[in-house]
Request: fold
Amino acid sequence: MGFRCGIVGLPNVGKSTLFNALTRTAAAQAANYPFCTIEPNTGEVAVPDPRLKELAKIAKSGNIIPTRLTFVDIAGLVRGASKGEGLGNQFLANIREVDAIAHVLRCFVDEDITHVEGKIDPIADADTVETELMLSDLDSLERRLPALKKKAAAKDKEAAAIAPIMEKALELLQNGKPVRAMLADCSPDDRVILDGLNLLTSKPVLYVCNVAEEDAATGNAESERVRAKAEAEGAGFVVISAAIEAEIAQLSDEEEAEFMETIGLEEPGLDRLIRAGYDLLHLITYFTVGPKEARAWTILKGTKAPAAAGVIHTDFERGFIRAFTIGYEDYIALGGEVGAKEAGKARDEGKEYVVRDGDVLHFRFNT
Ligand SMILES: Nc1ncnc2c1ncn2[C@@H]1O[C@H](COP(=O)(O)OP(=O)(O)OP(=O)(O)O)[C@@H](O)[C@H]1O
Ligand SMILES: [Mg+2]
Reply:
């Protein structure tokens, strides 16, 4: 699988700084000039989950292995990108390949750091970026729709199913709205068709307000404006100071705790960001726990047991018999597998079982 979250925004707003903090590397060049990034940087990030440590304690697991999410640091885009300005289409192609968008908005004032639009206005910046994505989608749909409609009229079943969804998406774009506005009342089947259209504005969005160090714990007036926008749209929202996070990422665990206390942060903003990205993608976690390791695995909400097993190994899915299942709360409260079994809280689940977040699973299979 591998779910990918793309870091998108205007040039020089802190995307690469954030990426480096997330991946705890200096893999992406971050510097004070627009279009510093050209080729996208890709990195895997461990998804922080305090439950793993609790499970490992009970099972005396030798190792803790978190699940991972991929972040992609993409080139900045400017007004006119959809028509080839700046890095134009190349950049749009990179966005097309991700599953969700973390849209970084500059909310910090610093005269020394160039802002391509000349002033701090995250709402206007968000509109600039979104407009380019919408123009690109509009262009793509307007090009594709006539041929599709012709096919639909000629009784092509597939085309007939796609056409109304394309038309609805087009109508939204013509009214200046992103296609994700139709996600809320999209049936699962329609959703598959919509995803197949491979548009830019149908991807879920998380606004990341990049604030100054002193605003990291509280946010500021600009980030509050973005919060209101995110709430109105049903989009994700996180306040973070990329500059601080990059510093924190360099520290040891002890130094980190101390540093965060001085600046009033309860947990690294990165943890909040990673979790928000995970939620945005409708991902949940199940665990496998034993003396060797306590390990987290990522699945889409709604995944049934065999497909969940397939994340570990395709053989597990092909030869799936059943899933020995204990809910996380039960596992902890009853002191592990034996206790849960004795209390009747361990269940054998079959092929139709929809795995829940936090399930501790043990798959039985034959190959
Ligand atoms: N919260 C912050 N406060 C102050 N300065 C910051 C903050 N976040 C990033 N910067 C600075 O802004 C500059 C641009 O950062 P960065 O290279 O990460 O931007 P970018 O969005 O990746 O740009 P590009 O689109 O050109 O690749 C760097 O000098 C970085 O140190
Ligand atoms: Mg960059």
Remarks:
- The pocket of magnesium ion (ligand 2) is lined by residues 15-16, 36-37, 73 (CB under 6 Å).
- The first strand starts at residue 4 and ends at 8.
